[in-house]
Amino acid sequence: MKSYDYLIVGDGLAGTTLIWHLLPYNKKILWLCDVSKPAASRVAAGIYNPLTGKKLVKTWMADKIFPYAGRFYSRAEELVKERFWHSLNILRPFRNTEEQNTYMALAAEPALTDYIEGISDCAGYQEVLKAKQGALEVKNAGWLDVNRFLDTSAAYFADQVTRIEGEFKDEDLKPGPENVEWRDYQVSRVILCTGDDERQRSWFGWLPFNPVKGQLLEVEMETFPASHIVNQGAFILPVKGSGFKIGATYSWHDIDWETSEDGRQFLQHKVSEFLTAPYRITGQSAGIRPCSKDRRPLIGLHPEFERIGIFNGLGTKGVTLGPYFAEEFAGFLENSKDLSPDVNIDRYFSLYYDHKKSD
Question: Which of 16, 188, 208, 259 is 20–30 Å from 253 (CA)?
Answer without folding.
Answer: 16
